[in-house]
Amino acid sequence: MTDIIAVTGFVATDPKVTNPNPDLNITSFRMASVGRKFNPETERWEETQPNWYSVHCYRKLGDHAAQSIVKGDRVIVRGKLKIRDWDNGERNGTAVEIDAQSIGHDLMFGVSSFERTTHSPDPEEEESEVELQPA
Question: pTM value?
């Protein structure tokens, strides 16, 4: 079963690009999601413990993420949730990962600008502009 989730939080590490093979770029970063709850005793809002995620972005999404986000940015990530236990002999734990399907800046905390990229199936082919017709 595949769980699709959407998480808001901040980018906790600088995105890192790896190339396991010439046809595949992967951009990865750590993300923290911190909630808030009201404490009736102090009558104040308090931050909860953060949830930590490793986010992996593949192909074009990875390329765009590497160019668009930096450590500290507030983002919204939507993707497939993967939870797995690990043990390396000395330590063990649980990894919580998101294979991102989409990422965007969280506009609740700032403004962003968007630049559409063009995609040509054949690199030799000239890029052409697409005219949008009104509905």
Answer: 0.77
